Amino acid sequence: MKTRIETIEGFWVIGYKHVGTTAEIPRIWDKLNATLKIDNISVDTFYGVCIDFDREGKLHYLAGIQDLVDRSDVEKIKIESGRYIVATVENGIPGIKPAFQALHEKTDVQFRFAPNFEKYLYPASATDHVIEVWMPIK
């Protein structure tokens, strides 16, 4: 797994929020993709933001993009500026959880409290897409 350190400016991700298990997340992506199709919006970067886990162990997750029109049925979350450790995911979507786990096990970085996120890159000229996981560090 390739890793790197990035420093970014903060930005907003706008999309649909899910509270529940990871097995239910594909439904929220289906909803986002349907909205993009209806609104004729084409983008090459998508974000899956892992906001937090609640006391019941449910994941709070937002599937979105940076450019979605702020509508009444969407929510937004701020991706904080700062340093992140970034890993390129191997083996597609099934590789996301192992990538996050491998980053959590790193001892040479100090994590900070802010949302983690998945970044899905679908460049128009590419034949394959790239998935990265981003974790905030000090």
From TrEMBL:
Lineage summary: Bacteria, Bacillati, Bacillota, Bacilli, Bacillales
Organism encoding this protein: Peribacillus huizhouensis
Protein name: Transcriptional regulator YdeE
Domain AraC effector-binding: 1-138
Pfam families: GyrI-like
